[in-house]
Amino acid sequence: MRDFLHAEKAQRERILAVIRAVYRAHGFDEIETPVAEDSERLHAGLGGDNEKLAFGILKRGLTRDDLQAAQEPLDLADLGLRFDLTVPLARFYASHRAELPTVFRSIQIAPVWRAERPQKGRYRQFVQCDIDVLGEPGPRAEAELLVATLAVVDALGLDGGFIRVNDRRLLTGMLATLGFAPDEYDGTLITIDKLDKIGHDGVLAELRERGVTPTAVDALEAFFRRPQTMEFLPFGEAAIRNALPENPDADAIAGLVAIGDAVAAARGADPSAALLQFDPFLVRGMGYYTGPIFELAHPSVPYSLGGGGRYDGMIGRFLGTDVPATGFSLGFERLVDLVELPAGEGAEAIALLHDADVDLAELLTLKAELIATGSRVRLVARPKNVKPTLDALAGEGFTSFAFVDRSTTLASLSLRSLTESASS
User: pTM to 2 decimals?
Assistant: First the structure.
């Protein structure tokens, strides 16, 4: 959990403003949910391994008898801090369905908490930026998500970004074709999800060490080592079928093709532009995904910048009636490390470097008059050496400055470019 200095905070807010503006332009509406959710809901098997990282909140008024009677730590907690924004959204929709449109497009931008082992890129408190489409069962929902996400990538200036795509039905179909037993699917996918880190040999070694069906592991090894053409195939049916074993799920492929066609059309893109890339081994760790899944990638970094997918079964756990749902979450903390947005051309930011003997009432009156014109204004006691102060103000986004003495009025104020003065 981190502090942010004012310059860092300003940069984060600029990036968030861009993300919000793009998502709103694409027809999504922002909601807010509490930081805490019912403990049983957070540990209902919907969050995958993230449930193990949830912070619990102890019940109030616990006694020694309560502590002694508890069978496990969770017996002492009735609430917990949210570990993502999807479980709270499912609860939100179940609670407010009657007040929402048939197809609801939501934005959630908020902090979440996980008891991670802190390291670079992994924090115990971090911001997620989610968009979700609830109530739409077809590929239109996924296409809207991906078009909006690519628009954010454009607006942030991340040239070269693309989205890796798969479908959980194709993954399980591949495992079945290769001979894995159904009760081995979850564990096998967890291992395959490590492919980027440990490679083909590491995946095969781990599966053999865990004792899964030997012939299936042999079949997976043969699939890994199959001859592959170097011919480029744009995202579409041919590329998908070429990357999979025989007899893949035709409905899943048709859905991905429809998504790809819609995204390319909306973007006005040549199919060879590779905005979407099919990845037969994209897994996504969450256990609640039921259909298409995605990850946002960029060639400058080896990790994903966001991801998501379809989770049709989750809301039904709360509502009793299944509701189709799909979503995409941006990895905001990782985006912040890659994106550098200028302060922008909004209201003028003015620094008033005032002499020590200027009357306080007159100084504040001058400040108020400038604020009334739409400017941002800061009072700064004039130092003996002005240059370091001007450099610092320029670095904080101030655009101009003026010296103020006892005779200065709004009419006589002489503004100077802070950028030019700081660089000279």
Answer: 0.83
